């Protein structure tokens, strides 16, 4: 699965991905607290500083955090690309991402520009270190699979997102927001959401859906063409963004491409070769249905202020899927590292985190989504309830991840040979 054909020496130490996975829920809890502290209409106003802060607590603190952790695990496995000095690399990327995200949010909440300067420096260190190494390794890969190709596109769009983001941050720092500022913001958003986030998820799905769930593979044509089409669409968007054109055609095309992906992923998941009940599958399905609704809403409900789109896309699609993926990766890595170290008396992958606990987390998370949606129709009370449920769901998520980790460390303390003899 995540370490197929990989020896323990080639796999990064378990602390590498885990530090990223365990940090993400803290940022999600911070988001929930911000929802409670600031008025809902301020937070949900796209142009407020508070909303820029929240957007990045999510895109940097949660999304990038999980993507960076997972990528360090997946690069050697799915692309045969091994990061040397994995612990040092993880330390630099993780510490600077954590600090940079906090400074970024504090700046937009306090308007103290020193924090913005610190954020720019930290985020530049984190993202450039990550992407330059990833691009170097990915373009050296000789055996090209569709996932390696998508990872390359992900890395290019990720790097561009950050260059644009840093440019925007410098404009805020110097106070020089020119007449093209919102064109630059739109490019940054399109690159981040459809490039950095969606392309990676699509590419990884091509491999992990058939592997994790013994499901159908995506059609080869689709694996080759869909990510490239999305990439070309993004690049052409950048080329035409400064012309006074009607961008509805882009909305239509992005919607078509992402719905094609969701349809194929759901088709694979609904036609699995081996039907085993698996709660992580619920996260995937909610994620894919949310993606479809989000895109249709974007296309057909022009009067929507983008609130529903954000909730459905960010929490419904992206975060649900990433949580489902982490619940697969953590138990697998615990099992893999223990068995590779010679521990034989170990729980099965599915016993590492109790499925009932994952189910409770899932229900609370879904309830929070429902209340976020209801706020769009009713009053602020619904938003506050949603925020409380969101915080609770992330506490449960964190506890479940820690349980997995604890099981690993407890077994590790035992003598590996003893476990073998006892068993
Ligand atoms: C080094 C990393 C980044 C920096 C420095 C950065 C900087 C910024 C800045 C300064 C803005 C505000 C623009 C304005 O309205 O004046 C912004 C907006 C935005 N950025 Fe980033 N960004 C970064 C990474 C990302 C990533 C990775 C994503 C998505 C995956 C992202 C998504 C967004 C979104 C959605 C907005 C719009 C927020 C809103 O309107 O409320 N950013 N970014």
TrEMBL record:
Domain of life: Bacteria
Keywords for the protein's UniProt record, in alphabetical order: Membrane, Transmembrane, Transmembrane helix
Transmembrane segments: 20-40, 52-76, 88-109, 115-139, 151-170, 190-214, 226-243, 249-269, 281-301, 307-336, 357-375, 381-403
Entry keyword annotation includes Membrane: yes
Protein name: Membrane protein
Species the sequence originates in: Malaciobacter molluscorum LMG 25693
Lineage: Bacteria, Pseudomonadati, Campylobacterota, Epsilonproteobacteria, Campylobacterales
